[in-house]
Amino acid sequence: EPEVTQTPSHQVTQMGQEVILRCVPISNHLYFYWYRQILGQKVEFLVSFYNNEISEKSEIFDDQFSVERPDGSNFTLKIRSTKLEDSAMYFCASTGWENTEAFFGQGTRLTVV
Amino acid sequence: GNSVTQMEGPVTLSEEAFLTINCTYTATGYPSLFWYVQYPGEGLQLLLKATKADDKGSNKGFEATYRKETTSFHLEKGSVQVSDSAVYFCALSGGGTASKLTFGTGTRLQVTL
Question: Among A2, A56, A75, A102, which is least packed by CB within 10 angstroms?
Fold first, then answer.
């Protein structure tokens, strides 16, 4: 069964450093998303991406964040200068053309120290 | 904006007990409704969905009916198992291009022997 894959599964970084979280969505999907889940809290929407541009972003997704689909298969989330409060589980998701069911990756646990 | 309200957890049940996890929503238009499950240490998996009023989603013995008149999508299972122990998230999607998911806070279910 096709799946969304994310790497790394866990990343530890120092405050102020840049991190790139990587995702490979399901190959024929068209819509891509990043969500985050701070420990013990709800899953929050960060950004959606379609046709090589951002469709929607939340207020969490400020200038420190960016997304890119560099090569037609990977979908990346970059945090330019990490803060302690960026520590969370980050989930990538994708949906097909019907856009009715989102498939999630296993997540990347980001720990900022 | 859209919002989802779930019953607070944790919910602790004995094996074979009946489960109900309440979920109500606020949305404009005609959202699609979902239940996602997160097993310990894993990502989000779609459990079931309903895309229009009066639809019943079902999977693995779980059911939920889209009730537009009460804006609810309660999750039920007649007989829970220890393996059902997980966090359950109710979510909605507003529809349209690259439509994001809005999640509830999640309800932790612990099933004991």
Answer: A2
